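Fold sample X.
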Amino acid sequence: MEGQFDGTTQSQYQHVPGPQAGHGIGPGSTNSSSEIEIICGPLLNYQRMSEEGADVFWHGSVLIVTKPEQRTPTLELRTLGALNPSSKVRSSAKQTIEGLKLYSDPDKSFWRFSIRLPLVEAEAKWQYSIPHMRFLSDVSKEPSREFIVPSATESMRIMFHSCNGFSVGTDEDFWSGPALWNDVLRIHQQRPFHVMIGGGDQIYNDGVRVDGPLKQWTSIGNPVKRREYPFGEHLRSECDNYYFNNYVRWYNTGAFAAANSQIAQINIWDDHDIIDGFGSYTDHFMKCPVFRGIGGVSFKYYCLFQHHTAPPLSTFTTDAPSTMEANADGSAGGDPRQLENTYVYKRTADDPSWIVGKRPGPYVEEKSRNLYMRLGKRIAFCGIDARTERTRKQVNYPETYDMIFERLASEFRAARGEIKHLILLLGVPIAYPRLAWLENIFTSPIMAPIRLLNRRFGFAGGFFNSFDGSIDLLDDLDDHYTARHHKHERRELVVCLQRLAEEHSVRVTILSGDVHLAAVGRFYSTPADNMDALEDPRYIVNVISSAITNKPPPKAVANLLARRNKVHHLRDGNTDETLLKMFEKQPGGQEKGADWNYVTMPSRNFACITEVPDDHMGNDAPANGNGVNGTVHINSTGKTGKARPKAGKDGHSPLHAGEEGAGTQHPAADGISSEGPLKGGLNVSIRVEIDNRDREGKTEGYGMTIPTLALASKDKVGSVGHPQLHNTTAAPENMTRRQ
């Protein structure tokens, strides 16, 4: 039984997006079938919330890919009432939404249905359907899909994943394919997710160089010839077809396809969405035509499939000078050959959730797309596009950081204390063990003879990559924020986040993937500061969840990283960093790592985040029993004074009640519970695969709770040296000054 409606249903109305405005006339012949033939989809995205008077609205979209259509498809949207049958909610009118054509060529058309719906008194279920649709792929043939939105006073329940695909050469059957998506759907059935955050590598396009159109180019032995190889229209067209078909294949796969249609997505790309290591090879090689070409093609389908937005007018080719440099609007110019029998929607404005970079990336003729949006009442989200602007020596332009922090500060001021948590997405971990010694070996002169033998005789061929001839692991190491090239940028980013947390009394939590194992890193004030973690703006947790599909590293690698889990000292002089002891037992008794390794888990996984409710939050009272801005502090033991347990010299002890008992016995471990030791905090569960031979993808959960930030009074803060956040030379007025 669905929840009850309170009041009478309004009459149906038509929501029309307005006239199409775009470039090109589209394909000359279109599908004459009476049915809407769906190649891929439906895919559900979340974009933002808006307040209109006393009402709060949810904004998102549904995307379908069809055979070229003569007519415009429509989507019917209606509410099914409250998720809880005992709750009453206001009814909403049924909507009929016309599709907006984003792109069309002789083989396919992309249609977006923009959704705007009210958030009401209780968590609510909505249903959408597309009349006359016929699926051409092996996905659910049900005529409708359902999704859940939070109430107007709730924060969203979040699922986080990364590395959703397989590296080239992986035995996919041995790993039971993308089996963990079955567990995602099981948990979703028990307690629905409101949003699903993709932290990068939502798809693996690396096969383009193995069984795709770049196979011949990759096989060229001479690095100079490979670097100068042209990327003409024919090769671009072949790569375009490859990327499109790979997206269709993967996004139509089993439980992943089901999740995409019923849990709203937020996505930020990473290298495998383009090709392995993109941005982290040597600069002269990254500027070669082939890499610039596939950067453009992958950006096109990233826009369409992952953001439901129009692609660039054309993408880079060496035989169309207009595409080789970005024009005044920061995008590649038009190429008449690419626009033949093609339609591209003309973007009238950037989505309000975007923070668009000021200038194009160094290897992609497009600007970065960073994201900001509210995830319900008390959680804000920011995703940093750490790939479009990336080089071997930088992750993002300084001015991009400035834009992001200015937007965050503006949003926090406008929220007037309502936002308690900021979730920041960084594709690559930032609180993570160092491997500088391995970098030093790989870049040292002792590797020169081996590199020479490789070039002349193919010696140790598997040790070097097929692109620029560098050591294969070096691009992965250079990707890390902890790599020596990025240490200065990393330090300033962390300190600026700490300052942001302090100025707005918002707890910052970072989500990361990429490394194919699970871990929980955290930054925190040095023991000399005697800072209660509940009051500590330097306390930032880095939830590392990777991979949901790709195979994990050997347990020896995870154990090596665990041995490198030292207490690191950020060069601001006030911040320490280490991994949390989270994994106190092996999942389901299956040995994954050494029995002494409690900090890195080499098994496939995903994460669930659930807010712990606080009875006073509806009245804008701070959590954890504090007065305004935390001027009266009650610690986790219920006594006044310092709550932080006395840490041992190794600095690995729990820092607050939410870290105590972290692991399988913690209340947060099941990925469902909103019970926790810290009211207003975030329950984090990392769900770890038990057996990769189990096609049901069953997992075991490991949990901990992240507290809200309850800043102490200025006098009290001053006594522990907190104002040094403003005085440290490592925290400039803005990120631009770091170079």
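Fold sample Y, listed below.
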Amino acid sequence: MHARFLQPDIFKRAADVLLQHVHRGAGAVTNTFTLVLTVASQETDGFRRFLRSAKHFNYTIKVLGGGETWEGGDYMSPPGGGQKVRLLKSALEDIQEENKVILFVDSYDVIFSSGPKELLKKFQQAKHRVVFSAETLIWPDRHLEDKHPHVREGKRFLGAGGFIGYAPNLKKMVSDWSGADSDSDQLYFTKIYINPEKRKSINITLDSKCRLFQNLHGALDEVVLKFEDGRVRARNVLYDTLPVIIHGNGPTKLQINYLGNYIPNLWTFETGCTICNENLRPLSGLQVGLTEYPGVVIGIFIQQPTPFVTVFFERLLNLKYPKNRIQLFIYNQVKYYVQIQNYDSELIDMCRDNIDCEYFFSIDVDVVLKNEDTLRILIELNKPFIAPMMTKPGRLWTNFWGALSADGYYARSEDYVDIVQGHRVGLWNVPYVSHIFLIKADALRTDLKDPDLFESATLDPDMAFCSKVRNKGVFMFVTNMHTYGRVLSTENYQTNHLHNDLWQMFENPVEWEERYIHENYSKVLKDAFIETPCPDVYWFPVFTDVACKHLIEEMEHFGQWSGGGNDNRIQGGYENVPTIDIHMNQIGYEKEWHKFLLDYVAPVTEQMYPGYYTRAQFDLAFVVRYKPDEQPALRPHHDASTFTINIALNQVGIDYQGGGCRFLRYNCSIKAPRRGWALMHPGRLTHYHEGLPTVEGVRYIVVSFVDP
């Protein structure tokens, strides 16, 4: 808990909503078991989770401490919790019924796994007037270990985070309390328990086999999820029990968060996600152009050289959200890019300090945001912190971690693969997210108001940020309810070319294809989207306009065009029909070109020339430049290939006049080649051909002699 004063009406509102439900269906237990007492000074995500689980099982809750500043410490600091004892003592003074059963539990890290009827039954079976939760570990004074009674089986140390008993016995138990709010409640109750006279007088026992209470600290290996008959709860495999109350005491907040993704029935195999449509903030019906939409500050982080940055901003522009409700800030620490703005890592201050900002949307520039509705979807889910799940094609990598290792780094949760592969779809409270997330501005101005959220002496900024968010009690949800996009690989991105994205075929093949392969290429094989302008000459789309433009500009930037005569780039230096060109190997593109031939040309070859299978080997692949005053045409010739690929890189009638290709044997000419379309034809014997004169402008083609 964190010292912060809140008006008590927030707890009244939460409790009022709950109590509308809890009084219904309590059944036979209401005469005896009517009240759960808990302490909460803040309405945190953990508190809301506690209330939801209580509502699910129709518990009656009374919240103590609303409006008070919390002075009782937390699990990361020295023993505290005395404030809870003071509040409990005061609350019990108003309870006069002799047979009233009171359950006293923590709230921020507690979940109900079953209802009051089962809890009361198990309490009565314990045959004691007060039952405390039990722990494997003794805390806070290990010197008291020998004074604890031995148990025949199970845990022997008292846990103060949960106990149940009759009101008169609980009153007697806390009657002597006079400590400070910062004193230890655990130590106070422990000393009562290890005192034989007091233990007998109050009639206290421990829930040693976790039939009522499951404390997770020191017991993580004992607890698993049990899915059965459309229900999910925790099972203690050591004692084969089904505890009613799960408590993430001590340093087990991540584990209670994991269990809380399922318990009670938040997600089951039969129903899927049961909370995904709760407490939404619908945006449909709001008027675009007015101020009805929430104001959003988008912070874009460029932290290393990244491919496809232009595409990133194109996609950002296509977000389906009113542009007048967005403010955009860019943090660029890479000299390679033109620096639009240069802010420090506290871009979130742009939202904190802006009264019109309701959300801060953080996006790293290596995010491929495919879903144009992403921002709307995240806002409508109405969480203080929410991230869309992002993946990398063909890998189990995502932008979230399902668990943390003991040293705070990546660990794989049991459900991680199912979530990544879409076998489990919903909202997931996780310990780490990166690359993209949405935070409510209210959270930034309250729980996350510290100016050093990204700073740490030992952790990188992302890990430091997530650690501090967790420690402030803010749940980090990731959603895989839709497909949102993916994250680029940036590790081997080189920046020594003009258009470095051309070299991303291996690192980011999906993005490369989307950027450079013609939108109709998929129809070539599927729908026979292919033309035959001359016998055994096939014409099909393969490159986008951007690919054509980048290849031309890359070659002109390199600038070392051949002279059109004898060529020392070729073995022996002699070329039968020389052109003015630049070879792919001159710009270091031969591996990428071979992959292009294998992936995009070979399938067409094998379809159009049945029985022929190519390995797409080539000796020559080059970009040719035709200019009226340089080399306007090419005399008739055969190619030194089994088949040849000839791709037009610019547009006749716009960039040049004339040009084209004529196959002499068939007296067949192609005088209007389409930009990005490939001509594929046999190279030897049958397809003697010539390049027709370019009479104006500059014509570029890329040629590859395949299987020489």
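Sample Y note: The two ends are 74 Å apart (CA to CA).
Also: Residues 1-11, 14-31, 339-345 have pLDDT under 50 and may be disordered.
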